[in-house]
Amino acid sequence: MSSKPRYRVNLADVPKRRARPTTTPDGEFKVTQRVYGMDSSMLIADRDPGYHTNPHRHDCEQLNYIVSGEIWFFVEDKGYRCRAGDIMRIPRNKVHWAWVRDGQNCSVIECHAPALPGHGEARKSAVSLLAEDEVLSDDKIAANARVHIDPEEIRRIEARAVAEEEAAA
User: Is the distance from CB of 115 to CB of 136 less than 8 angstroms?
Assistant: First the structure.
């Protein structure tokens, strides 16, 4: 009898990793759990108040489900305030960043297609949901690429988005 492929895992069995992602400034951390298959990946992330990524892009689409708290996503020059229960899409190769602006922790589930299982230590802590005969090669996965935007321009984009949101409330 052949062994059953590991297509399922309980979240309690997925290692938690506290690290500073390559897309965040020095000193900023988040706790993540990652799983991946051949064509997609999932990241469960707890982000501390003040968490702010640098602008970046990746050759995959990203869907975010906000489990708790509030987070701002910026795509190109537009800002989106997301709260618990919201779903936010980041289109493939669009420059984007995130900011936990208020004083609460934020929990997000991110899905990426094609897979973005991380590199180095992040990839080592990710749980593969592949069968023994499946191999996810590096040329089939997406990677983050930082994008330089002048910090003053980022502040202007963020201030405009917050002002627009407050005016609409």
Answer: yes
Query: Strand locations in 5-149, DSSP E?
Result: 17-19, 30-36, 41-47, 56-58, 61-68, 70-75, 78-83, 87-90, 96-99, 106-113, 127-128, 144-146
| Local mean pLDDT, 10-residue blocks, the chain (169 residues) | 83 85 57 92 92 92 97 96 98 96 93 86 85 88 91 96 90
CA distance linking residue 122 with residue 127, whole number of Å: 10
DSSP SS3 for 65: strand
User: In this predicted structure, what is the pLDDT of residue 17?
Assistant: 86
How many other β-carbons are positioned within 10 Å of the β-carbon of residue 101? Answer: 18
| CB proximity list for 163: less than 8 A, separation 6 or greater | none
SS3 state at 88:
strand
131 CB-near residues (< 8 Å, 6+ apart): 5, 6, 7
The answer to whether the beta carbons of residues 95 and 53 sit under 8 Å apart is no
16-130+139-168, CATH topology level? Jelly Rolls (2.60.120)
